[in-house]
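Re: that chain you flagged

S.,

Sorry for the slow reply, it's been a week of failed gels. I finally had a moment to sit down with the sequence you sent. For the record, here it is as I used it:
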Amino acid sequence: MTVTLASLKQKLQEAELGDRLRVMGEARILPLDQRFELACLAKDDVNARIRYDAISQLSSLGHQDLGKALTVLRDRLLNDPETDVRAAAADSIAALKLTEAFEELVAAFRDSNEWLMQFSVIAALGELGDRRAFAVLTEALAHPESLVRLAAIGALGELGDPRALPFLVPLAADQEWDVRHRVVQALGNLANLDDPVLDQGQIQALIQELSQDHAPQVADAAKALLA
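Prediction finished late last night. Pasting the structure tokens below so you have them in one place:
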């Protein structure tokens, strides 16, 4: 049977889960505007896997109608019962640069006690590049989950805010190599900023110091920046 928007909409109404699970994959041959329409319908499916697939695809399909994508993603970010779907909504908001959802992202971080959700929000705030996130990101540096702390370091680098440097300096001596490695990456982002507030000499000195790190992953990343 020929795959059409109408046929896939019909499949979304089927009781058989297997049929509904295949809808978003089969939709890939459709025009982007039709795939977007279908994803907006699938975001209400009772099955979390289908909702997750639909919300994840909005990261690339949302440009078809950013206003509608914003409405859908805000709703799933705040109201979906599944953490994975809410996290996917945060990822898609960031991918689409929907700064209008900044307050909702911050609320999702503060209202959740699930580290996966908080990790996704912190990463999204970095990708979004809105400097209003600075306070939340520095707060996340003290998170009990190490992956959230690493995401916060990376996000501070992505944010491109010169205020991040004093927070990164002590972390350059952290006992965990993956923290130091993420600091190198963040310093690399700050080194590319043309901001008179930043002490580029201090940044270069830190990178130079980390190029001698005993962990090869850290040293190699720093040497690559110096080169």
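What I noticed first: The CA atoms of residues 195 and 222 lie 21 Å apart.

Talk soon,
D.
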